[in-house]
């Protein structure tokens, strides 16, 4: 397969993920409590995946020898999704997306501190450039000498991206230990269902028809996006795909302007550009090191 097809699929995936974020912002603006949005994602994911599970042999496919790793991935995933979605209701859509894209930068820190990975000077230097981009998005002058700053929205987005990096670290370990992707996704949905059920009952309200429509579109777009991203990963290297993820930023800006009347400033695009360059270099460097290790082991 041509790498261009992988890039094309990743572009489609990023468009779908931007739709998910927009639906989350819209449904929260319509008054649906955050726990209900998160619960709906878990319920709809399980409903869509359960028929496939039944056809493939049932609950035996979910048996795992690594329950604590799945639990860690689930907790990080719940925090990441919850905080990232919360940030959508507090700051402009494109800014929330951009700050959430800092995940690979945090993942590099986690890989060094907790996974024992050794890095040279190049990737940390690239990460510093990326962090500078994060600071530009959060603190850049948006007129009258004012930036977003560390308000509740930016804190939620940044904390959610750190939790998202934790997801990446656990997924790496689970993949290296042979856990199939379906099991990882299904068990995460189960954990999410358990976590969000009680808070959802506490704030329960029956979704209106428009709210229900946004919930279904968000769930379908998320699953379709995951499918496209998975196919893209089979056709192109991570070093090619990583910078493509930042396409969500201008897409989010366009959707934010058209649907919510948001006007992005220069800090968003300048910061996103620095983050894109940083993540692209880190991904490319990791790919080079992985190939070198494979040659040494052959």
Features of the shown structure:
single chain, 298 residues, mainly alpha, 12 helices
Could you characterize the architecture of this molecule?
This protein is 78% helix and 0% strand. The chain is mainly alpha-helical. Helix 4 (93-100) packs parallel to helix 7 and helix 5 (103-113) crosses helix 7. The model has no long low-confidence stretch (mean pLDDT 85).
Compact description:
The protein has 298 residues and is mostly helical. 78% of the residues lie in helices and 0% in strands.
Give the biggest sheet.
Answer: none
Sequence stretches where pLDDT stays below 50 over 5 or more residues: none
Mean pLDDT: 85
Structural class: mainly alpha
Strand-residue proportion: under 5%
| N-end to C-end Cα span | 24 Å
Count of helical regions: 12
Order of helices and strands: HHHHHHHHHHHH
Radius of gyration: 19 Å
Helix content percent band: over 70%
What characteristic shape results from the CA principal axes? globular
List the helices and strands and how they pair.
Elements: H1 3-29, H2 34-55, H3 67-88, H4 93-100, H5 103-113, H6 122-139, H7 152-176, H8 181-202, H9 209-235, H10 238-241, H11 248-260, H12 266-297
